[in-house]
Amino acid sequence: MQAKxxxxxxxxxxxxxxxxxxxxxxxxxxxxxxxxxxPGTRHRNHCPNCLTSLHVDRHVPGDRAASCHGRMxxxxxxxxxxxxWTIIHQCLSCSELSANRIAGDDNALVLARLALRPLxxxxxxxxxxxxx
Length: 132
Description:
2 helices, two-stranded antiparallel ribbon, alpha+beta
């Protein structure tokens, strides 16, 4: 005798509180579906899992006026005067650098690895010592 299947419940993964998240995107690095709603930032354009971004903003965060649309790799971490961390991204197509605020749901382990990258690279340490 075959068991009767219970009907599936409605899943609101893509439809939060009755509204469609039209600006959500899929990460070009890890292929994770990313919500643009992020704590600590208003214009998310990087993946909270792998920190990969797309070159979408030109002059102002959120303007989405860049024509390049190349993949941007996280290169390092910078800290602003107020203690706010930013991720430094470099576009693999046009080599432009940009600073993006970290979001509250960014992967803390990936951020720590990115911050410690200069300490792991012996060439960076040697160049710093030689420049002193």
